[in-house]
Batch of 3 targets.
Target 1
Amino acid sequence: MSEARPAPETVRVAAIQMNSLGEVDPNLARAGDLLADAARRGARLAVLPENFALMGAHATDKLHAAEPDGPGNDPGNNPGNNPGNNNTPIQDFLSQTAAEHGLWIAAGTIPIASPEADRVYPALCVYDDTGQRVARYDKIHLFDVGLPDSAEAYRESATFMAGSNPPMVIDSPFGRIGLSICYDLRFPELYRRLAADGAEIVVAPSAFTYTTGTAHWHILVRARAVENLVTMIAPNQAGHHASGRRTYGHSVICDPWGQVQSEARSEANEVVIADIDRTRAAKLREGFPCLTHRRLA
């Protein structure tokens, strides 16, 4: 039996935690089941984690799964109107699933072809409840790091091309939504820009490593919520992947006061649900106007 939808002043949202595999098709099937569950439970906005469609055994696997930027941009590209198109299975899936369930989906990330054959854009695409794509944000901060006291190292710039897009905030029936991805969480100036542009909700689809997640995941997500008085929806990858990488899980939804409303507790696929008060950010900003007290640009 479906759970009752919340009152009009609240909106039910979902952070979709995944343990993504090394092939696209089973990941899309798994994401489809999780999104259907979120919709059945009354969610109107669902956020998928970074690399939800592919966590390959090799960094270059994403190049073979790269798609041209396409379906969801206009009704003519909707898979329902173009069933013969098989060049963009991930985007087709997202557009069709959003329309099928009447669900807004923020899907981070999709490998979108770039001008360079050996790199792709890591794109966070947002689809409305009719299946129309309403936004695309390409990750601007790439995870090129070596972890302290460890041989663990990553160089996303080897296969990803950083986005040149400005910070992005979009309108929705649930308020203004700011877009960010994973490593972006370590750059508070981005979130300040999103807040200045009117963001009330910020999504942060992620694939935090187990090492960095254990140390910093909750601190960063909660800090971005507190600093900017926004709701943070932060789904994460979880568990072991084909490459041997382990991700942290603990997908969270935080309110604008930095309180964790809901959190995943396993390293499995999981739908994290919370009802968020659409008026809370505005009330907090009025009574606790720290955003207007800034003295440094």
Target 2
Amino acid sequence: MQMPDELYQRLFRDVQLKKIFPDNKTFVDCTPNSSIESILSGYEKLCATHPSNEAVKKFVEDHFTIPPASSPGYHTNKKAGIADHIEELWNVLQRSADKAVKGSSLIPLPYPYIVPGGRFREVFYWDSYFTMLGLAESNRWEIIENMIDNFACLIHTFGFIPNGNRSYFLSRSQPPYFSCMIELLAVHKGDEVYKKYLPAMRKEYDYWMDKTYPTKHCVQLDNGTVLNRYYDQLSKPRPEAFWQDSALSEACTDASQLYRDLRAACESGWDFSGRWFKDGKTFNTIQTTSLLAVDLNCLLYHLEATICRGLTLNGDAAEADVYDEKAERRRKAINKYFYNAADGWYYDYTISEKKLNNQKTLAGFTPFFFFIPPEKYIDKAAAVVHGDFLKDGGLVTTLINTGQQWDWPNGWAPLHWITIKGLANYGKRNLAALIAKKWAALNIKVYRSTGRLMEKYNVIDTHLTAGGGEYPSQDGFGWTNGVLLKILKTYK
């Protein structure tokens, strides 16, 4: 399946570099109204006249269907309670099974699904797990199973779950929460779920372990230990952010590596953050592929353990033992290579320097979400959460303000749930409840004043909206809805 830059060539470059649309994602999500050949031929004729930007925009509007920025015709009822509002939003954010359209970047999915909202008109991989938490509280198990079946279909078609169901995402995945989704569904449907999706889990595992594609997700350390990093198959500007990537590369000596690291950060879901910057502040020092990511390795530990469970249920004890050993080796490696005993926090690991990265981020609490650390580690970690990350509106994602959306002063729903659940796992229920209360209060405050649930929030100054990043803050919003509803039901 060709990406938009390959498909539309000169037209693509002109539209993106001339910034015909304020958001580079708009054009790559357009649907052609005629054949690709006739569009390209028509544009070549137009180019002979040295068209203005307005003429190029009119050409696109004449030959493509422009996607709406949000759900047309939907108006918030601000008098509705927050839980009722979320119940209504599930219907607004649901999409039917897709039909293939030649020339469209959308990868058609066979079952209905939930999109995040705003500019995100497709399913996103890791967003979907946190969205499912709320769907489960709404007893919407059919759409949860539909979405898992869609992801299984993507795995069996492409060998992995792309970042989202767009052709321009086919060079990377996102944090692998597929096994967590299966675990969630098994609560409702029982252990047969593990057996049903076992082939898909094993195939996804092969992708992350470099057996499907030569992606270089795996890094072997000096003692033979293999751990994982985020890594994109391509090293060229992202079609959905073509202008931004091209502009950033002008001040860079190795554009190819820059593009790879930008794309790898997108695979991490943290696009973008000083977490990935070598100097902690400057965008063009991004070094995503130079770091072993603590959260990714925790997710792969869970995938190994879940595959083991599926194999055990299938009666394949010998193969189950293999994956049990893989999971145990990774658990020990996470505690060895990512843990800083001095402050009790987990960090990413810098490959070339063979030491912990110096950026303290909320990703460092992920091991507790998966029961990876020993019990004795929780006191120090909880003190860091309370002392460094907890603010008036909830948890700040990092302790640095770079202007990037995954840094101070912003907080995000998925990291709140990971931390709340991780604390509860280790008996720190009072701190978990305090964080839940602060985060829910901020979500509800913004909803009451705007009628919206947002993609991210400013947790430092709760009177200000969240900012930073490549695009304005989006409303909708799948994972915010899911985590908030889960918190409301769990903590009453």
Target 3
Amino acid sequence: MEIGIQGVEGSFHNEAASSYFADRPIEIRPFHDFRSLAKSINAKQMDYGVMAIENTIAGTILPNYALINEYDLKITGEIYTRIEMNLIAHKGKKAADLDQIYSHPMALLQCADFLANYPKIKLTEYDDTADSVRFIRDEGMKNAGAIASKKAAEIFDMDILDSNIETNKKNYTRFLIMTSRMNGHDQIPQKASLRVITKHDPGALAEVLLIFKLHGINLTKIQSMPILGKPYQYAFNIDVVWADYDNYKDALQALNNKAELVKVHGEYLKGNIPSV
């Protein structure tokens, strides 16, 4: 089974894919950017794609919501992954031996407290955490390190000098499991991701939210997004969960009667947030 990810093998997308599909053999197909990944999913060039949508520190990845809508992708699942940063270098090296550390700018920021212990080490931004490990290996940079996942160290046969060096240990990323648009469910869904455009009237959003309340539907996320070509008008990306699927279906019917547009991006089993 072929799984598309953003980033190279060993990235956190790779870890999320391996965890979600742990019961099945998979082949990872890397993409340099999210748009290329979305295009390939839409063209049915792989079985599934894995796309990050939000992080507990960095927040929502807004462009990915736009890609999901633009390419009419279907969300079939989700997984929450603990983001554990590790200092990685050539075998036999110690942190004190390093004169430069490469990684994605967000990873460098998330490890600021640890890096403050080594003020003489130059910090260099790189496009991808896992690829920064490959870079220092392939370039033979013996006194350089990289910050990435444990899987990256394993794939590129490098040593982990220090593990879990991120400042905030409650650092999670939510990844969506995507396919091209299709119908049907393998199991009764527990969660849905919706795109809702309300009427441009006073209280329109409040009326939409009241529908969920009256049907016992819990909102786990609501995110406004500008509508292209309509300045200062917004769509709302809404995640909901329920105890009774029939209640959700009734709420969806009421929502269709009230809102200007309702698009179901996916109905799926909700993921479990791992414990620290």
